[in-house]
């Protein structure tokens, strides 16, 4: 029963952290949209898209590698 409790506790803490992170991200985007001109906000969106595009090959193997190394 201790293992199940630990798994549930870890799941809830990771889920809570993810919700907080997404909430902060949303608030930052709303803030930037209000203070920046539309053209500058578009530049930020374009930069995010370019970074996400180049992160695809990086994420292909690192997630699996990280999980495997943590499990050892």
From TrEMBL:
TM segment ranges: 12-33, 45-67
Key words, A-Z: Membrane, Transmembrane, Transmembrane helix
InterPro entries: Polysacc_synth (IPR002797), PolySynth_Transporter (IPR052556)
Pfam families xref list: Polysacc_synt (PF01943)
The keyword Cell inner membrane appears for this protein: no
GO terms for cellular component: membrane
Its membrane topology: Multi-pass membrane protein
Claim: Repressor is one of the keywords in the record: no
Annotated localization: Membrane
PANTHER family membership: LOCUS PUTATIVE PROTEIN 1-RELATED (PTHR43424)
Protein name: Polysaccharide biosynthesis protein C-terminal domain-containing protein
């Amino acid at each position: 029963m201790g293992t199940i409790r630990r798994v549930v506790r870890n799941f809830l803490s990771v889920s809570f952290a993810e919700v907080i992170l997404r909430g902060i991200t949303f608030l930052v985007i709303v803030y930037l949209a209000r203070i920046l001109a539309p053209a500058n906000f578009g530049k930020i969106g374009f930069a995010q898209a370019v970074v996400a595009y180049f992160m695809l090959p990086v994420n292909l193997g690192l997630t699996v590698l990280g999980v495997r190394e943590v499990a050892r």
